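Run log, item B.
One chain of 224 residues. Sequence copied directly from the ordering sheet:
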Amino acid sequence: GFGGDQFALIPPGSFRMGSTVTTRTDEGPVRTVTITRPFRMQRTEVTRAQWRSVMDSLPPQSSRCPIDACPVDAVSWREVQEFIRRLNLRDPGRAYRLPTEAQWEYAARAGATGLSPVAPGGLNASAWVTNVIWSWPVAVLLPNAFGLHDVVGNLWEWVADWYAVDYYTRAPAVDPPGPDSTGVRSYRGGAVGSGVARSTLSARGGGAPEGRFADVGFRLVRDP
């Protein structure tokens, strides 16, 4: 379900967003970003069981991991919006939504300043990134300091923003909302099979909002 225990409280704060280590131009320049309001983020990616509980059936192409505890995949950004609409009707007052890119990276970092979540045992203890299986049940590996699982690896995660390669060069420093419409929506975090280089806290990608991608899922945020 979507009870309070499924969401971690993320306090306001500032962090360094982006990376200077990667050669990808969409991850820089690194800048200090401030999140001014607390929010709650789902501890795991939305699972197949959670999707079915709201939408009654699974997406037609969602079959990479058949277990209910696996994250739902092959859902388009627009289908996610319909899922959120229905969930908000069922549970009013919570304001379920996708995180902004800045909220996602701030929560995913949980104080980490490098490319990977801080967890005992390193990246392999907290992220599925190089396995041949497309996805794994959620919350198997260690969470980050905010209690969020699989922020790197397992599946990329849709976020609210439009995607622009150069957005960091002009984004506001406080609660950046993302660029104006570009026709492409952002996703974050890397996926199983992405490899270490693309499974980082700063990695960005984007796809058409109508597109269903086998390695893209999502997690929710809501009001405290």
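Observations after the first pass:
- The first strand starts at residue 7 and ends at 10.
- The two ends are 17 Å apart (CA to CA).
Flagged for discussion on Thursday.
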